[in-house]
Amino acid sequence: MDLQYSAEYEAFRGDVRSFLEANWQPTRNAEAMADFRKMATHAGYLYRSVPKRFRGSEQVSDLLKAQIIREEFEAAHAPMEVPGNGMSMLVPTLLENGADWQKEMFIPKTVLGEYQWAQGYSEPGSGSDLASIRTKGELVGDEWIINGQKVWTTLAHKCQYMYALIRTEPHAPKHEGITYMLIDLRQPGVEVRPLRQITGGAEFNEVFFTDARTPANWIVGKRGEGWTVSRTTLKHERSSIGGGNNIQRTFNKLVALAQRTERSESRAIDDQAIREKICRIEARVLAHKYSLYRQFSMTAAGKEPGAVSLMSKLISTNIGHEIAAVAQEIIADDGLILPAGRDAGSKLGNEKWLNQYFGSLGVAIAGGTSNIQRNIIAERGLGLPRDAVAGSGKE
Ligand SMILES: Cc1cc2nc3c(=O)[nH]c(=O)nc-3n(C[C@H](O)[C@H](O)[C@H](O)COP(=O)(O)OP(=O)(O)OC[C@H]3O[C@@H](n4cnc5c(N)ncnc54)[C@H](O)[C@@H]3O)c2cc1C
Fold first, then answer.
1. Ligand 1: which atom is nearest the Cα of residue 363?
2. What is the CA angle 381-387-392, rounded to 5?
3. Which residue lies with its CA nearest to atom 44 of ligand 1?
4. By the number of CB atoms within 10 A of the CB, which of 131, 161, 271, 302 ranks highest?
């Protein structure tokens, strides 16, 4: 593992810094952020894998440069690519599997943040066993008629479009009867019902389709081959969840919390039991960070990191949960107050730790549960026999 960047890359870092100093004034103004993103794309720092004709910067893939950009943009609190499923999941899927006209129609506006996408995979009874989905699509003339229900659809109430898995071949084996479909959510046959969460927020939805329609050619890949297409999307989802950058930041916040929280006679950080828990977590944070560095160095050198890469999501979500659990212990009675929802301000700031705690349970489920991750590690990484429940998993 080599933790130093070469002179060429340090020079690149200098360029990124100069660009940020010249062009980025911290702001939350949406228009100013959109303008900045355009400049950063023009300079080759954002949307590097997206071709220029689709409003990307079309750069030669270079993991080290991408990492340097991430580090410098984060340090300057500058916005990266627009957040959401569109950029992280749909665009890579369209680039790999979409028809040219689909790329032209959907990618540029997704890159600009004008189109927001919901992920319509899970259904009641079909989460881990995703291939058992029942929402059906029937081709009538030049349209698909869609009936059924999706659930846990993050931010569907704010999205114009959904990429969804729909059963179109009811008599085919379950993995072969699914089509990857793009659906306009703003139509009479679609009803989006928010689900209120324990945090007080309502970020998830149930989405009901009653004779909803989508054009016959709004399918990505071939009819009945949606399972294979969906694998691209999940690969991107999992790697974004497994990224280690957030863990160190959350851990630092835990240490700050322990330092500022007064107990009866001393600060929480001076409590031996709390210190030990924090030290144990720090060891895991560092081990995870260095494991990611090792995988990163290997990938940058053109080597395959192997089974260890399957562990990132499980490890990072476990650590996130441990951090939130110790924070709960530190805030003690403040933990009895109601969580405030994602957007609520807070006098003490401790409600945010409650949200962090509940959120850490959710992240361990999203994109494939921890148990499903363990199955994947066992079967693909360690070569153990397949799970008795065949075909399981958002795997
Ligand atoms: C924060 C969050 C955001 C989400 N966003 C979306 C979204 O935008 N779009 C979308 O489509 N879905 C979304 N989901 C749904 C998510 O993909 C599913 O919740 C997940 O795949 C698990 O499915 P399930 O809820 O049906 O649980 P189940 O599959 O019923 O699992 C229940 C329990 O059984 C265990 N289990 C199941 N099968 C096995 C097995 N074979 N071996 C061992 N253990 C097993 C699981 O690990 C779990 O503990 C989101 C979920 C969360 C929490």
1. 1
2. 100
3. 371
4. 161
Tell me how far the alpha carbon of residue 31 lies from the centroid of ligand 1, in angstroms. Answer: 36
Residue 244 corresponds to which amino acid?
A: G
Instruction: Check if the beta carbon of residue 133 is closer than 8 Å to that of residue 179.
Output: no
Catalytic residues: 237
Residue 212 C-alpha from the chain's centroid: 27
What tokens appear for 35 in the block?
């303008």
Nearest CA to ligand 1 atom 4: 366
| Cα–Cα distance, 322 to 315 (Å, whole number) | 11
Ligand 1 centroid from CA 367, angstroms: 7
**Index of the ligand 1 atom closest to the CA of residue 371:** 47
Residue 171, pLDDT score: 95
Task: Determine the 3-state secondary structure of 389 from DSSP.
Answer: coil
By the 8 A CB rule, do 271 and 330 touch? no
User: Hey, whose CA ends up nearest to atom 2 of ligand 1?
Assistant: 366
Q: What is the pTM of this model?
A: 0.90
For the chain, the domains span 7-81, 117-230, 243-364
Q: Which amino acid is at 204?
A: F
Please tell me the class of the 243-364 domain.
mainly alpha
In whole angstroms, what is the distance from residue 215 CA to residue 98 CA? Answer: 15
Number of H helices, E strands in the chain: 12, 8
- φ, ψ at 33 (rounded to 5°): -70, -40
Fill in the DSSP letter of residue 271. Answer: -
Cβ pair 173, 166 in contact under 8 A: no
HSE (CB half, 13 Å, CA atoms) of 368?
27
pLDDT per residue as tens digits for the range 269-283: 999 999 999 999 999
Neighbours of 76 (CB within 10 A): 15
**pLDDT tens per residue, range 297-309:** 888 888 888 888 8
**What does DSSP say about strands 204-215 and 161-167: parallel, antiparallel, or unpaired?**
unpaired
> Which CATH number among 2.40.110.10, 3.90.1150.10, 3.50.50.60, 3.40.50.300 corresponds to the domain 117-230?
2.40.110.10
Which atom of ligand 1 sits closest to the CA of residue 128? Answer: 29
